[in-house]
Amino acid sequence: MTTSLKIDFVSDVSCPWCAVGLGALEEALGKLQGEVSAELHFQPFELNPKMPAEGQDIGEHLTQKYGSTAAQQVQIRDTIRARGAEVGFVFNPEGRGRIWNTFDAHRLLHWAEHEGAPGQQHALKKALLAACHTRSEAMGDHAVLMACVREVGLDEVRAQAILASDEFAQAVREREGFYTSVGIHSVPAVIVNDRHLISGGQPAAVFEQALRQIASEMV
């Protein structure tokens, strides 16, 4: 018998560990086929909600925010790239160059969840992660966001109207506020059935074990 789980994947498009975590979660769910099925929802979290439209040099940003040196940043980037390769996600070996405001990307993801076909929010999330981390594109650029919308077959006219307005802004901020209020301060945060938290970009084996355990407790 297959056990159905609700999974909220709280993350930011600009978070490289979120790309790693999503790949690992997908791998784990693939290994659990026949035992566990998942209803995935992608929830918003902004690592840098005050990031200006023009973005910021990523080396400068990481030094200011975390106090890391250029050498440390290279080492971390190599680690993340290796972890990404384990789950089939390709990171640009040169890094991203700049970091961008991602609020509009979150508005589109909210729209895709509520008005898109099944699976389209998931597809859009993956397209946005690839644009950001594989191709190092400017995630605040509406042309980049529209290319991702087009790639996954969402309604382009509707997406353009959303980007030209502040539609879904309040809803996204409310969701962000909710997750912060319940103690989510780093991502990815994987919340299963509204009560079980798996934090960080864990290996697939960790997700597999945790999901199997949660599912067994529901039988």
CA(first)-CA(last) distance: 9 Å
Strand content: 5-15%
Strand order of the largest sheet: 2-1-5-6
What level of helicity do the residues show? 40-55%
Shape type: globular
User: What oligomeric assembly is this protein in?
Assistant: single chain
- Biggest sheet record: 4 strands, mixed
Structural class: alpha+beta
Rg over CA atoms:
17 Å
| Number of separate helices | 9
Fold and architecture overview:
The protein has 219 residues and is an alpha+beta fold. 53% of the residues lie in helices and 14% in strands. The chain has 9 helices and 6 strands. The strands form 2 sheets. The chain has a 4-stranded mixed β-sheet with strand order 2-1-5-6. Helix 1 links the parallel strand 1 and strand 2. Helix 1 packs across helix 9 and helix 4 runs antiparallel to helix 5. The chain is globular. The chain starts with a strand and ends with a helix. The mean pLDDT is 96.
List keywords for this structure.
6 strands; 219 residues; alpha+beta; two-stranded antiparallel sheet
Break the fold down into its secondary structure elements and pairings.
Blueprint (H helix, E strand, L loop, with lengths): L2 E9 L4 H16 L4 E9 L11 E2 H9 L3 H17 L11 E2 L3 H13 L4 H15 L7 H10 L4 H8 L5 H13 L7 E4 L3 E4 L4 H15 L1
Parallel strand pairs: 1-2
Antiparallel strand pairs: 1-5, 3-4, 5-6
Brief sketch in words of this structure:
This protein has helices spanning 16-31, 58-66, 70-86, 103-115, 120-134, 142-151, 156-163, 169-181, 204-218, and strands at 3-11, 36-44, 56-57, 98-99, 189-192, 196-199. The protein is of the alpha+beta class and 219 residues long. The strands form 2 sheets. A 4-stranded mixed β-sheet has the order 2-1-5-6. Strands 3-4 form a two-stranded antiparallel sheet.
